[in-house]
Amino acid sequence: MELFDNNKYSGAEFSEDRKYRYKLWRIWDESKNKVQFIGLNPSSANETEPDNTLTRCINFAKSWGFGGMFMTNLFAYVSTDPKKLITSDEDLFKNNRVLLEVSVECEMTVFCWGCFKEAKLRAKDIIELFDEPFCIRKTKSGNPEHPLYLPGNLKPIRYKNNVNH
């Protein structure tokens, strides 16, 4: 873990070639519980540089009283173009293992992958791994909304497993 901005801890776990990011974390108060966010796939955020989605998730985590957050994803493939996910040769079992390992370290898991049609089956598999997941808000079709453009005053709500995917 590296020290960054005002004694906060920052880190990430990437594959050797950095094509896959399995988890990324920011810790600002070690005495408080942590929250896990599960998005669609990693974009440009890394050990020290955030992207807009990570910044948004950090702000939600702080407003909910957490002392840190872990960003994980349905897919570990790093890309700003989600359509590239379906052509990647990703090891989903490794990513599943990381998702579950992180969840043990966190008080809450928040789904936030949005509505990417091609991820429907993958999302279904991940939903089944978690007993009491949350989301920030659901889309009309029941998917967990992506956090980037949601109002900052929202609180996490339970995400029920009986949604249409």
Radius of gyration: 15 Å
What general outline do the C-alpha atoms trace?
globular
Instruction: Please give the largest β-sheet.
Output: 8 strands, mixed
Strand order of the largest sheet: 1-2-3-5-4-6-7-8
Unreliable sequence segments: none
Percent of residues in beta strands: 15-25%
User: Can you identify the CATH class?
Assistant: Alpha Beta
- Total tally of structural domains: 1
What is the N-to-C order of secondary-structure elements (H for helix, E for strand)? Answer: EEEEHEHEHEE
Terminal-residue CA separation: 37 Å
User: What value does the average pLDDT take?
Assistant: 90
Give the beta-strand count.
8
Q: Helical residue percent?
A: 10-25%
- The helix/strand class is alpha/beta
CATH architecture: 3-Layer(aba) Sandwich
Describe the structure.
- It is a single chain.
- With 165 residues, this protein is an alpha/beta fold.
- It has one domain: Rossmann fold (3-Layer(aba) Sandwich).
- Strands 1-2-3-5-4-6-7-8 form an 8-stranded mixed β-sheet, sandwiched between helices.
- Strand 6, helix 3 and strand 7 form a beta-alpha-beta unit.
- The longest helix has 14 residues.
- The radius of gyration is 15 Å and the shape is globular.
- The N and C termini lie far apart (37 Å).
- The relative contact order is 0.17.
